[in-house]
Amino acid sequence: MGRKAKLGEKNGKWFTKAGGAGEVYFGRVDEVSPKEADALFATYVRDLERDKRVAQSDGPFNVELFDAFLDAVKAKRGDRTYEERCCHLARYSAFVRNGVRLGDRPAGTAEDADLLAFQAHIEQHDLIDFVPRRGTLEPDEGGGPGKVWVRRAKPLDEWTVGKHQTSIMQCYAWGSGRAKLKNPAPCLPREFNPFANVDRIKRRADAKSEGDLPTAAEAAALLAHADDDLETIKENFRFRRRRPDEFRVGADNPYAGFVDILRVYLDTGPRTSELAKARVWNFQPASRTIVLPEHKRSTTQRKPRPRKIVLPAATYAIVLKRCEGKRPNDLIFADPKGRPWDRRTLCNRFAHVRARAGVRARITIYSFRHAWISEAVMDGTDLLSVADMAGTSVDMIERTYGHLRTDHLLEAQERLAAARAARAEGSGGSVGSGGQAA
To answer: What is the mean pLDDT of the chain?
Structure first.
C-alpha cells in the first residue's frame, strides 16, 4: 500500500513530495493561509490521480478528442478560427496511415510520424466530397464516408500546411491541459506531447506593402460598378451580361445598394463579417458609431470590450438612411433578397463587381481594412487610437503596419545627410558611405 500524500512546511514554504517529481511548492507560509494551501494541495493530488488513470489507457479515440476540442473552440474563439479548425481536423481524421484512419485510433497512440506523413500528403492532395461521375479527378486513398482524396493541381503552400499543423498541435495540447484554451477535464497526461520533435512551420512576416492596397482609381472603379445589374440576358440561345444601357434602375434593380456597404468598408475599415452582422440596434446615432458586443476578439479578451466602428459624416449619413423605418433587430445591410450577408456571399458578390471594374484579383473586401489602417498609420495617427478604432491590438498594428510609419526615419535620414554635407563642405572634400572624407 502506497504512502498517503501529505502537505508539509519547509523553509517557510508549503510543499509536498507526492507524485515522485521532487518537492512541489504551493507558496510562502506568510503569504498563503493553511486553508488556501490545503485547497491547492487537494487540486494537485486530484490532477495526479487523473494523470495516473489516463496513463493506464490510451485515452479517447482521436475523433472524440477532436469533437470535444472543436466544441471548446466554438464557445471561446471566433467563427473563422472554428471553421478552420473543423476543416484541418476533418482532413487529419480522414488521413489513412498503416491501413487505419487517424480518427479511428486512440489519441494516446499519436506520434510525430503521423503528423509528418499527413503534412506531406496534404501538400499534394485535397479532401473533397465524393461525386461519382467522370472527370479529371484522380482518386487516392479513401477519405471516409462521402469523401475522397484527390491530387491537387498545384502543391499547397507552406503557410497553409503550417496552419493545419497548428490546429492539430493545439488540439492535443488542449487534450492534455497545456493549451491557452482552458480544458476543465483533460483526457491526456499533461506530459503527453507527441509532436515535440516536429519542426514548427513558422508564420511568415505579414507586413503589408503598398502593392497590397487598392489604389484610389481602383476604389473609385469598385464603387462605380458596385450597383451594376448582374442578371444575364438570353440572346440567340445564349446568355450574356447586360450592357450599361440595359441596367434596371432604382427599385427595379435587385442588385442596387451594394455600393453603400462597400463605402462603409472603405471609410471605416471593419472586418468583413462585422458589417454583415450589424443590426439597427447596434447603431448609436448620438455617438456616430456602430457598437458590436460580440465580435472576433470578444471571446479571447480577458475583459471583453465591445467593438466600436466610428462613422465619419458621409458614412454616418449612409447608415442613418439604411436604418430608417426598420425595427431594432433588422439588419442594417442585407443581400438583394433581404437575407443576411456572410463572408462567402459577400466575397462572391465582390468578385463580380471586381471583374466588371477591371480591378486586380488580389484586391478583396478585406483590402479596404488594410487600406484604412495603413492610411491611418501613414497619416501619423497614434497607434493606440488606430488599434482602438480597428478593434485589434497595438502589437498587431506594429507587426503588420508599423513599417509604413517612416516620418521619424526620414527626418533622421535628412539630418544625417545635412550633417554629412556640412562636414564635407568644412573639410573641402566629399563624404562617402563610411562617413569619412574621400
So the answer is: 86
* Domain covering 210-404, topology: hpI Integrase; Chain A (1.10.443)
Distance CA 247, CA 228 (A): 7
Q: Where are the domains of the chain?
A: 8-55, 62-175, 210-404
* Per-residue cell: 203: 508564420
- Joined together, the cell numbers standing for residue 214 give 487598392
Burial 78-88 (b: 16+ CB within 10 A, else e): beebbebbeeb
Contacts of 7 (CB under 8 A, 6+ apart): 14, 15, 16, 26, 37, 38, 41
Per the model's pLDDT, the better-predicted residue between 438 and 50 turns out to be 50
Distance CA 97, CA 69 (A): 22
C-alpha distances out from residue 8 to 14, 18, 19, 32, 38, Å: 6, 11, 14, 13, 10
Q: How far is CA 291 from CA 150, 252, 356, in A?
A: 44, 33, 33
CA distance 1 to 126: 54
Strands of the 13-16 sheet, one edge to the other: 8-10, 13-16, 24-28
* C-alpha cell read off for 30: 506568510
Q: What's the CA gap between 27 and 354, in Å, rounded?
A: 62
Coil, strand or helix at 202: coil
How far is it, in rounded angstroms, from Cα 405 to Cα 380?
A: 7
DSSP 307-339: EEEE--HHHHHHHHHHHTT--TTSBSS--TTSP
Q: Are strands 289-292 and 307-310 parallel, antiparallel or unpaired?
A: antiparallel
Confidence grade of residue 4 (pLDDT, cut at 50, 70, 90): confident
pLDDT in tens, 49-73: 666 655 555 678 999 999 999 999 9
- pLDDT for the residue numbered 137: 43
What stretches of 101-157 show up as alpha helix (H) in DSSP? 112-124
Per-position b or e across 23-46, b if 16+ CB within 10 A of its CB = ebebeeeeebeeeebeebbeebbe
Distance of CA 326 to the CA centre of its chain: 32
Cβ pair 366, 301 in contact under 8 A:
no
Contact 43, 70 (CB under 8 A): no
Sign of CA dihedral 96, 97, 103, 105: positive
Question: Where is 284: in which H helix or E strand?
Answer: strand 283-284
